[in-house]
Amino acid sequence: MFVDQMVPTARGRLVVVSDDAPLIEAARLLGTSNTDLVVVCGSDGRLAGVVTKTDVVRQISCCQGSSCTVALSTIMTTDVVFCRTTDRVSDIWTIMKERRLENIPVTDEASVPIGLLNARDALQILLTEVESEETLRRDYVVGIAYQ
């Protein structure tokens, strides 16, 4: 199965903010949405980085005066693991597992975010795929045995 089949679900999880937005905006989005990750985009709409709840807490713990209004571009993670709609879910799951990632942005060919793939969703799809294969094998074996 490919990531493109998960885009409708991934699109619903996507939370995007501009790279010049203040830290407090990311904190508000993370506090009100059902996500642990906000995708940060540049003025061209392309993926520029990500901000997690951990990033926000780390920065706020160092706040003095107005430093909590620092632009997201100064604190975001720019080395982002992302996937495309043409990637296999099993390959993405392997990367998520190895790097202990709960979410991965899904981008189009122009690096514009179109969704956020969650590990639970990927795992559910893989489990369904395995169960389907198991059913097909069982049906095949049973069919052969009775002919």
In short:
The chain has 147 residues and is α/β, with parallel strands linked by helices. It has 5 helices and 6 strands.
* Number of helices, where a helix is a run of at least 4 consecutive DSSP H or I residues: 5
Strand order of the largest sheet: 1-2-3
Low-confidence stretches: none
Number of separate strands: 6
Share in β-strands: 15-25%
Describe this structure in words.
With 147 residues, this protein is α/β, with parallel strands linked by helices. It is built from five helices and six strands; from the N terminus they run αβαββαβαββα. The strands form two sheets. Strands 1-2-3 form a three-stranded mixed beta sheet. A three-stranded mixed beta sheet has the order 4-5-6. A hairpin with a 5-residue loop joins strand 5 (103-107) and strand 6. Helix 4 packs across helix 5. It is elongated. It starts with 6 loop residues before the first helix and ends with a helix. The model has no long low-confidence stretch (mean pLDDT 88).
Question: Features of this protein?
Answer:
147 residues; alpha/beta; 3-stranded mixed β-sheet; 18% strand; elongated
Give the secondary structure arrangement, pairings included.
Blueprint: H1 7-13, E1 16-18, H2 23-32, E2 37-41, E3 47-52, H3 53-60, E4 83-84, H4 89-99, E5 103-107, E6 113-118, H5 119-145
Parallel strand pairs: 1-2, 4-5
Antiparallel strand pairs: 2-3, 5-6
